[in-house]
């Protein structure tokens, strides 16, 4: 994933330099952010590799299928800037693989996405 700069405008993601994603975080997968009609799908982080800057997230309820046209993709989330202010931040990323039957630690399986 590449760190991306975002304008400090309402409804936009802010710049982030550190890789602060952690398993269990709620995230949004944002598609075509720069288009006139971007879309987002809520998800949860399953696994994070900080060294490779790669993550595995839960397949959203509105599933991403092989062959889905994705011009650009971002993963975004909220952080606390101080005690009362939350800021949306994010990373540009790309879809590497759709994983069917991803093994969870509870021995359950689910579908996942590798970015």
Short description:
The protein has 115 residues and is mainly beta. Helices cover 0% and strands 46% of the residues.
General description of the model:
This protein has 115 residues and is mainly β. It has a single domain (2-114), classed as Pnp Oxidase, Chain A, CATH 2.30.110. 0% of the residues lie in helices and 46% in strands. It has strands at 2-3, 26-31, 39-49, 54-58, 73-80, 86-93, 97-103, 109-114. Strands 1-6-5-2-3-4-8-7 form an eight-stranded antiparallel sheet, with no helix packed on it. A hairpin with a 5-residue loop joins strand 5 (73-80) and strand 6 (86-93). It is globular, with a radius of gyration of 14 Å. Residues 1-15 have low confidence and may be disordered.
